[in-house]
Amino acid sequence: MSVVADNGAPDVLRVENVAKSFGAITALRDVSLRLGKGEVLGLIGDNGAGKSTLVKILSGYHRPDSGEISLFGEPVHLRSVIHARSLGIDTVYQDLALVPGLSVFHNMFLKREHTRLGVLNNGSMRSQARAQLDSLGVNIPDVNAEVATLSGGQRQAIAVARSVFSDAKIILLDEPLAAMGAKEGGLILKLIRDLRERGDVSQIVIAHNYLHVLETCDRVCLLQNGRITFDRPTAETSVEELLTLVGAEYRAPDA
Amino acid sequence: MAAAETIERRPASAGRRLISTFIARREFGIFLVLVALILYFNARNSAFGSKENWATLAEYGSPILIAAVGETMLLICGEIDLSVGHVYALAPLVLYKVAEHGWPLVVGLVVAVGVAALVGLTNGLVTVYLRVPSLIVTLGMFNVLNGISLLISDGSQQLTPTNPTFGKIFGVGDYHTFYWAFGIMLAMHFVLTMTPWGLHTIAVGGNRIGASESGVNVSWIRIGNFVMCSVLGGFAGILTAQHIGTTDPLAGGTGLMFYGVAGAVIGGTALMGGSGTVIGTFIGVAVLTVLNNGFTLLGVDAFYNDLFIGIAILLSMALGFLIGRIRGKPA
Question: Model-level pTM?
Fold first, then answer.
């Protein structure tokens, strides 16, 4: 039945024959993919190939027109972002995640505050935030600092850490390195690899830089014209091959 | 990060640490402005520092502070209430009407505060669910409430119904309104900085989508702060009516609302939401109160008074922001 290859490992996420149109525009024609436990999947594709639509479906923002999504073997209908999050799928956007006027530790515990008799237990949140960031190797000098004073990379690392420690099982990273310097980007790539070492979260990383994908991901999927046209372990492909595949679109003779 | 890091790295004595923590606070700039104003007016007119004048300052500033504290919470969560000045007039009138029908004053107080809460609830529901900007909603409410106040009072002042105990608790006597204002200010400072409600209020104003996706009930936070602001405005009106002994349908209005919002903004609360402190609002309202009182004591002509106060407000805001920017500059 399934069109995707099965390697025997239990899949945390399975997408089968998902399609989505907006009026006359077909964003996703027929997408099937799977994500193994602890796996890091790189999702690449040209602008307009349907990457954002796929991410928004997986994060509960859009509902697919047809097709099926299953989580840990159970079919699910993701009703909202909050619903998806409650099931363990968390999306980290570069700009949307945090509240600039709150401290790092308040952001990490937003809506999961530690309280005593209704009063914030800042000491407990502060030390736990410190410990959580340290355990992920995230370098934030001061958890009391307002998020507004931090760099893009630090903010994203905090958002990812928050997801990990709010029991996310699947983390979607939408263009985590966009508009980021090399050093900043390195911080996020290291975080993705460290999470992979821990093995308890699976990640889908949307990226433009094929070198980053090959260095950080276990597997790479290419989305073209609303379909997955290429799905292979990163060990079995190269930057040249990915470039050729994507480039072929431009060189294709007019139909 | 710069400011926070400098503080962390400096191996300073406890005293120096305390000073640098103090300077690092947002409210520091406007606090300097307040001190400068007090020194200036004190030097120009010795009556400024007199015992009687401190009582006058407290009496004048207290209702503004109570309303400003409510506005602070609303501004931080990204909303505004322009109608608070007329809730201020309406609530004591409601108390008057209830007492007129022979009910105890406490019942009148509960009904008046309930009416104020209902006004806030209406402001909040319309803003949140009909998605009308609160600037528009509360501007409409401003006129509606003024109309109701004039209708039920026939446009005339009344003697405030009171009795010795009720009056003493709710504002009769020197500094009695100020105790309330100061207590409410401290309580709201606690709510803003030490409870999930405060945290969520900042989150809603700073990043509404992010807050909502984190599971914060954004509508509930916004509506709740509308109700709180309205209740505080109404309560301030009741305190003043008790304090001065008359219930006036023309009390409050634009003046109180404007001073409340200006006090919050001068104190560093962002008009666009997401940041602000109640302590800053306290200092902001103090600046406005001192300015108004100081100019009056200097004998500034009534026509010039508004002009000077307007310019002074602009300057204190600019100076507060400027000092804040210099302080926040990376070393």
Answer: 0.84
